[in-house]
Design goal:
Blueprint lengths: L1 H28 L8 E2 L2 E17 L2 E5 L4 E6 L6 E2 L4 E7 L3 H33 L5 H30 L12 E3 L4 E5 L7 E2 L10 E6 L4 E8 H4 L7 E6 L2 E13 L4 E3 L2 E10 L12 E18 L4 E3 L2 E9 L2 E6 L1 E5 L3 E6 L7 E2 L12
Antiparallel strand pairs: 1-22, 2-11, 2-16, 3-10, 4-6, 4-9, 5-8, 6-7, 8-10, 11-15, 12-13, 12-16, 13-15, 14-15, 16-21, 17-18, 18-19, 20-21
């Protein structure tokens, strides 16, 4: 009897476990109804913009170069120093070219011989002229020759002086051995050192840069804009600059130049743009700061808008679904306006009190409950 009761209990337990398992699996197989979230229209400012990348640079930056070749004897500036127009920034010690030096010395010797010979003839004929042996016109020939050879001797001596010291003795100074700033501004870079060699700037080479000097009170943004965006912009548009090194402040600027010709970079056509930066900003801008420029294409303030993600389309016609009862929605066609890629202006079809269904990401079919 006890054995039968025990077997009966086991059978009941097994049946109960089996029934519970079937019930659990049935419950798992049932999909939970989707509960949609809703959003309401809101008033906001919508700004449509395009972005260009680039850097902040001085409007006026000049590379200072030497007028003569030689060795830097003394530097009078360091990077970051303020200088005025005409300030001496470096002194160059002339190292003359041996061939030019030899030619100049030979020219002096030749000019000296011609002068000495002309002086002898002048002195001899002056005596004859004073004695009325020769006429004044005959004597003037020797007088002119003396002056000509004297000028040639002086010119050859000046040339030797220039080769040796960088300036002629008649100038009274060796000014071109001193490199002077041609603008007032800040020294950005001094790429040379005392004792280093410099090459003069002429028509055949650019010469050695001794210092870069810029007016830091007038900065501009210079960047590149893709060809797909350049047709949307025009000079005079407002720009908002975001500078990586100064993340707490935005800088106002105005577009002033768009390159008429693009260049190929990384397989895409890019156009150079420049914008003047508003001087009212208090932060100090260093040359070379990287920056992103938001170019304002159009802007509307206090417009009724919704997140662009709530828009749906039927045959390219936009519509939304408005809640008419809890989790019950109806389609409503709308007219849209300006969009910034996140929010979009709604010009017709909704009220501010409407609750708009947020569609499921991925397009999962809703099961309304």
């Amino acid at each position: 009897m006890a054995k039968k009761i025990r077997n009966f209990i086991l059978i009941v337990i097994l049946l109960g476990g089996l029934i519970w398992t079937f019930y659990f699996l049935f419950q798992k197989s049932q999909e939970q109804p989707i509960v949609f979230t809703t959003v309401q229209p809101f008033d906001t400012t919508i700004v449509k913009k395009t972005v260009a990348t680039g850097s902040v640079i001085p409007r006026k930056e000049v590379n200072m170069k030497s007028q003569v070749s030689g060795i830097i004897e003394k530097l009078y500036i360091v990077a970051g120093q303020q200088v005025k127009e005409g300030d001496v920034i470096a002194k160059i010690k002339i190292i003359p070219n041996m061939l030019n030096l030899a030619n100049a010395e030979n020219r002096i010797n030749s000019a000296q011989l011609n002068y000495d010979n002309a002086k002898i003839e002048y002195d001899r004929n002056k005596i004859l002229h004073d004695q009325n042996v020769i006429s004044k016109s005959d004597f003037q020939v020797f007088e002119l020759r003396l002056k000509t050879t004297q000028e040639e001797l002086s010119a050859s001596q000046n040339q030797l002086q220039i080769i040796k010291e960088g300036a002629s003795k008649t100038s009274g100074s060796t000014s071109n051995t001193f490199v002077k700033s041609t603008i007032t501004g800040m020294v950005l870079d001094v790429p040379v050192k005392e004792g280093g060699q410099v090459i003069e700037s002429n028509t055949f080479n650019e010469g050695t840069t001794i210092a870069s000097i810029a007016n830091m009170s007038e900065m501009i943004f210079e960047g590149k804009l893709d060809e797909s965006e350049v047709g949307k912009v025009q000079t005079g548009m407002d720009i908002v600059l975001t500078i990586g090194a100064i993340d707490k402040e935005k800088f106002k600027a105005k577009l002033e130049y768009i390159a008429p010709k693009g260049v190929t970079e990384n397989g895409a056509i890019q156009f150079l743009i420049r914008a003047s930066i508003d001087k009212d900003n208090s932060a100090f801008l260093r040359a070379g700061y990287s920056a992103n420029a938001d170019i304002i294409l159009s802007k509307k303030e206090k417009v009724l808008a919704v997140p662009e993600s709530v828009l749906q389309f039927e045959k390219e016609i936009p519509f939304i679904e408005v809640e008419v009862a809890p989790q019950k929605y109806e389609k409503r066609k709308i007219k849209t306006g300006l969009s910034d890629g996140i929010n979009i202006e709604i010009t017709e079809g909704i009220k501010k009190t409407d609750k708009i269904k947020q569609p499921q990401i991925g397009g999962a079919p809703p099961v309304e409950g």
